[in-house]
Design goal:
With 254 residues, the protein is of the alpha/beta class. It has 9 helices and 4 strands, in the order H-H-E-H-E-H-H-H-H-E-H-E-H.
């Protein structure tokens, strides 16, 4: 949502993970639901050129939407922000998805700490938790220490806000993980594709080789920042500039 205003004059449509979306029983079903929302929006803008944008888990979903639209003969471009279109990625304790799933609340808590730059701390915790049997993992204890680490970098979050973000985010992450785990795209997207990588998060750069297998016309650009900062409200301008440049290159009227 922070990126959307910077893509003017593009008309943007946010695909929310709402009650209807969370009721999906598969990634294919979720993509079909989102596709129908896009079709509805396109009916209000029949001359618009379509671009699907995804980040994190959204890259997996966006690629599948683009594939379905391609199968229906629609002209569509694709923008992927710092993630693979298959899941899970390769093993790496320093990144989300790079180790066995710990559960949504644990994963959301670690993501909150990574978001303020404490990637090494989160990697050490992920490694520690992996060594414990699931019943021995204490979310209350982790949340307490994670908040202290987060607060050392970002003071305006209260503990109540932190816990709320982790609980709500953890629920959504569990649902999304259930939909995308073990996913490999069933086809190759042949339309114009842009992969945006954060220069400061080399652990995500494997997405270049992975996505090239499923996107046959892909170009890649790196922007300053990390995977956790490039879409923050004060920092999406570099991503927006890269996306707008890509769209102009491929004949979009922006």
């Amino acid at each position: 949502s922070a990126l959307a205003p910077m893509l003017a004059p593009c008309n943007t449509c946010l695909l929310r993970f709402d009650a209807d979306a969370t009721s999906s029983d598969s990634l294919l079903t979720l993509a079909q639901k989102y596709l129908m929302r896009i079709v509805g929006d396109m009916q209000q803008n029949p001359s618009a050129q379509l671009v699907i944008v995804g980040s994190a888990f959204g890259c997996v979903i966006a690629h599948q939407i683009a594939l379905q639209m391609q199968q229906h003969g629609a002209q569509v471009s694709l923008v992927l922000i710092d993630f693979e279109v298959s899941y899970p990625p390769g093993k790496d304790l320093h990144r989300f998805g790079g180790y066995d799933w710990l559960g949504g609340e644990f994963e959301a808590t670690l993501q909150m700490v990574r978001s303020v730059g404490c990637v090494q701390w989160a990697a050490a915790e992920a490694e520690r938790l992996q060594r414990l049997a699931a019943p021995a993992r204490d979310i209350t204890e982790l949340r307490k220490r994670a908040f202290a680490e987060h607060a050392s970098k970002l003071t305006q979050f209260t503990r109540a806000d932190f816990d709320s973000f982790c609980s709500r985010g953890g629920h959504c992450m569990d649902l999304l993980h259930g939909l995308v785990k073990g996913w490999a795209p069933p086809g190759k997207f042949t339309g114009a594709t842009l992969l945006v990588l954060a220069a400061g998060s080399g652990e995500f750069h494997a997405a270049r080789d992975v996505n090239a297998q499923f996107c046959t016309s892909m170009e890649t650009v790196e922007v300053a920042g990390t995977a956790y900062s490039i879409l923050e409200p004060e920092r999406p301008s570099a991503v927006a500039a890269a996306v707008l440049s890509f769209l102009r290159k491929h004949g979009h009227a922006v």
